[in-house]
Amino acid sequence: MLEQSGDSNAQRDNLGNEVPTAKTGDSAAPEVDSVQQLQQELKRIRNEFDGQRAKMKELYLAKEAECKRFAKEAAGARKELEEAKSQLMVMEYNKEKDMEEQNKRAQEEIGTLQQLVQETVDESTLCQHEIRKLLDENDKLRQERQELKEELAQQDSPSLAPVLNQAKKIIRKLGAADSSSHDNLEDSMRKAQEDAEVLRSLVVPLEEEIKTLKEKLRRAYEDMEKNRGDDGRKAPESALVGMLKEAKQEPASATEPTPEVTCEMCTNYETKLVQCQEQINGERQKATQLEKSVERMREELAKEGAMRADLEAQWQ
């Protein structure tokens, strides 16, 4: 383009430098003057054109350099933008991967905690069933003991009834004899000796019957303790032996019921149940905290996704 403009300018210069041929006659001088004036005007115009062309060339070169600089800056900015996009994509990929790993780890922990909670609940349920079973067995043994006592009382009471009836008759007879024996002291002494012999004859069978009853009760309690099994409850047996070895003047105490023994195993199971429930509550609190942290991570991930969408929209 510049070469074409230079050729056209050269042609114009050549055209301006051409000198017209001189004419003969009187009109040659004014024509020469006008030609010289035209040549000077043309030279002035050409000089102005050359100056303007130089300025335009300088302006064009400056604009061209500025355009190149702008193009270079735009290319650098585009390259930086591509690098920033690549880095951002890598960062987003790494962040998503980390979030997936955290979510996966949190889900595994939640699953483990849920499994522990379920195992604890199952163990607690098993403990409750075991406690209920022991309580039922305890009630059953208590009922069997009561039935055995009633059965022994029903079996032994007929054998004591004749002796007691005879003792009552003798006591009434002694009372009647004492009321009529105040007149004669010798008769009273004789009757007292007879009464002592009669009472002695009554006491001996009663003592033998009491021994028999004690032996039966002792065997019954031993059989009952054997049925219960050896679980550490030996206090009732020793108390029973001590009761059966009491003095002969307290025969009725042999049939008194023994105090109930507290079930230590039931207490241990109840304590273990409370500990299991506390452990369940602690695991539930941990699971709730983990769920809250996962929910918070999800909210942060949603915010980052919205921010990324905004940045992509701005880039586009």
UniProtKB/TrEMBL annotation:
Residues 43-224 form the Rabaptin coiled-coil domain. InterPro entries: Rabaptin (IPR003914), Rabaptin_CC (IPR018514). The keyword Acetylation does not apply. Residues 1-14 have a biased composition (Polar residues). Residues 1-39 are annotated as: Disordered. It comes from the Eukaryota. Residues 182-230, 266-314 form a coiled coil. Keywords: Coiled coil. GO terms for molecular function: growth factor activity; GTPase activator activity. Signal peptide: none annotated. GO terms for biological process: endocytosis. PANTHER family: FYVE-TYPE DOMAIN-CONTAINING PROTEIN (PTHR31179:SF7), RAB GTPASE-BINDING EFFECTOR PROTEIN (PTHR31179). This is Rab GTPase-binding effector protein 1.
